[in-house]
């Protein structure tokens, strides 16, 4: 269990009221990672969502020669592991701590236990996960359009 006041500081939970934060606090754990720690690997099973309280992590994919290529960097307040949290499938990237990292973790099994009693909390957290994914997809779409325009010599968007 995590202190409600600590969760209140997180943007991810900003739309939850005091009672809703108490419900989430009961199923949330805190975990630290040292700089350089691999939090999880691409292809590993995982059903938890991580909210970065403090620190920076990178999402990577491994090339056939074993080299890790950075896909994105995440920092304070951002989430990761959300896809495996939602669908129960293996992780699609390797996550590595670039600095010391303090994180909050919610396990999907614990989250599902509160569905019947606290559907509004579930709705709000799921909406926040979807907003995060939506933001990532929009960013990818913008970068894709810029890349296509650059490759075919069209005017680049600014």
Protein model, in words:
The chain is globular, with a radius of gyration of 17 Å. The protein contains five helices and eight strands; from the N terminus they run ααββββββαββαα. 23% of the residues are buried. It is an alpha+beta fold and 158 residues long. The protein has a domain at 4-113: Jelly Rolls (Sandwich). The strands form two sheets. The protein has a four-stranded antiparallel sheet with strand order 1-8-3-6. Strands 2-7-4-5 form a four-stranded antiparallel sheet, with no helix packed on it. A hairpin with a 5-residue loop joins strand 4 and strand 5 (68-75). 38% of the residues lie in helices and 28% in strands.
Which term fits the overall shape? globular
CA(first)-CA(last) distance: 45 Å
Structural class: alpha+beta
Rg for CA atoms: 17 Å
Give the topology.
Blueprint lengths: L3 H5 L9 H10 E6 L4 E3 L7 E7 L1 E7 L5 E8 L3 E2 L1 H6 L6 E4 L3 E7 H6 L5 H33 L7
Antiparallel strand pairs: 1-8, 2-7, 3-6, 3-8, 4-5, 4-7
In short:
By secondary structure, this protein is of the alpha+beta class. It has five helices and eight strands, in the order ααββββββαββαα. The protein has a domain at 4-113: Jelly Rolls.
Q: What are the defining features of this structure?
A:
158 residues, 28% strand, alpha+beta, Jelly Rolls, 4-stranded antiparallel beta sheet
